[in-house]
Amino acid sequence: MFNNKDPEKLINEWLADVDSFALPSDNDIPSREYENKLIAWLDVLGMSKKILDSGESNTGAEEILTNIGKLRNCVESSCLYMIKQNKLDYIQLNDGFIIVSELEYIDELCEIICEIQWKILIDIKLLIRGAVTAGQIIVSSDLKIIIGPAFINALKMENEVAIFPRILFSEKIYQYIKKEDIEFPYIKEDIDHLKYLDYLKYEYDLEDNYINFDNKLKVFGIKKLLKKYYTDNIMENNNIAQKYGWVIKKLSDLKIKIIQ
Fold this sequence. Notes:
The protein is α+β, with helices and mostly antiparallel strands.
């Protein structure tokens, strides 16, 4: 049965309480020095389980490949303008993406990540979790290898700290934004005091009014999807329910009601 607890209360209770990748061989490691870069790690939630399930049952491989291709298209189309200007690179690792850029492009990267999160929600009906940080990194010229402590830090933030489908910002990045007086109003502080990228408010503000945004969520089936995954899992799988509950709460803050 459906748990009638208010989603916001449930999320507050939850708050109270990586994909693997192949390591490069010695011969593959570029003979270059580390560079200080801006790095974002984006992980698509739920895709890894689908990949594992398709392997065990030997079914659904074609659908997985299709969705992986769609993910790449979403990311590439959002990054294309910056890539053409040689301001940004990205690497795909299965269902995850690493985006690397210079620190000075933090505001442009924030806009790109907002767009990516929204496209993947609307077009593929999946949620993203990740982290943005900065530090030492090396990216090979063919964009096939990335190594460095900044990448490891971003992975750990996403895997161990983010919990909900949100993109976290390291304290180093946030302090840089404040110091440089960069104005990107969609970096918010969550209830657990962590800084995250509010892509839903970003997309909300792109619409002319509340009604347009609400209708878009209905047309693309997002309201129905969020309600289904939340209610279906609240009694059986709290880990999944809390992720959809977090999105429901953020939409509620925008006066968008998913559960009446």
